[in-house]
Amino acid sequence: xxxxxxxxxxxxxxxxxxxxxxxxxxxxxxxxxxxxxxxxxxxxxxxxxxxxxxxxxxxxxxxxxxxxxxxxxxxxxxxxxxxxxxxxxxxxxxxxxxxxxxxxxxxxxxxxxxxxxxxxxxxxxxxxxxxxxxxxxxxxxxxxxxxxxxxxxxxxxxxxxxxxxxxxxxxxxxxxxxxxxxxxxxxxxxxxxxxxxxxxxxxxxxxxxxxxxxxxxxxxxxxxxxxxxxxxxxxxxxxxxxxxxxxxxxxxxxxxxxxxxxxxxxxxxxxxxxxxxxxxxxxxxx
Amino acid sequence: xxxxxxxxxxxxxxxxxxxxxxxxxxxxxxxxxxxxxxxxxxxxxxxxxxxxxxxxxxxxxxxxxxxxxxxxxxxxxxxxxxxxxxxxxxxxxxxxxxxxxxxxxxxxxxxxxxxxxxxxxxxxxxxxxxxxxxxxxxxxxxxxxxxxxxxxxxxxxxxxxxxxxxxxxxxxxx
Lengths: 286, 174
Hints:
The structure holds 2 protein chains of 2 kinds. Chain A contains 8 helices and 8 strands.
């Protein structure tokens, strides 16, 4: 039997490490234009003087961070990656180890804070911000897409997951999300962005919620059910009056992103992953 | 905007009211989860604290490393509610000013009133801006904690807002 052997593309390890280092440092210091635009828009619309003042501080901060290459926030997070691996790629090295080497270099050379402890109970700092949290997916083609976010703990600690029942439906999801935002209050550093996962099972729900935070702010969900939920939730969350840093105002949330997945006939999992206003992420395709 | 010198006098501290915007200059000490845990353990063991907290201010922060030529790296506040179990114990030793971000427990607010202390809220996620307001940084204790070690900072025009005052007012429940 004859089989056609396709030549497989490789990505030099050094290049992968260098590019990982580069996007880490850039993400930590340069806030995406689309986040800046939304903050500016909300500042113009705010009537609460404290809220306006806080949004002004946030905007001034990102400008200083960008021009002077200072991290936007001192919590430069735990490194989170979503990597899409083209099936026509061949690696003669450990991809995860290369990504972690990029983390080591990025956090050292970018003067970023090392915020990872080796075990949740011994609390011993690993001193190089490894290990990173890495999510893998195989895709068609011969490219490697690396998406990175330095996820801080202030907003991550306020994130929640609940296994609802099918009878709870949209009202149940809305109640849980609103309760989560209310409980988070000023602790999650609002204005926030919400990554909502609905469906899947326990772990899938959380993963798709996290991945929702990587979507561009202007991006609307493809499924009309998810899109409708995004609109309803954004309006309801901003009506809560939490405001910037929890001190009141109508700017509580800049965007809501809903990702859904099929689920069991008995289940309706919901995960709410909160992102603070320092919504940093960067990607590269090699 | 009230200009305030740290450490602040009792008269100034008791005059502050929730919602007052303040600009802080002077001396404060840094400390977050790990340093608070160690300081409280020292109190329990009747050991000396790394600095005399009496009348002082503690800022809940773990900065990024300073680049060559910088005094400090990015240095915004961390969420202060995590210090709720420790702060009242330090207040018993005379700590009067706590600076951080976000709402805190009812027990904590009651302890503020008992001790005539105040809690100041700084905007989270503006560490680059705040780094320009720090003029000096000196390591005081627990160097192995890296960014979580205790440092003495000299600050100038450091912006904050009074979140909880010494008479029980609460800016978060506006």
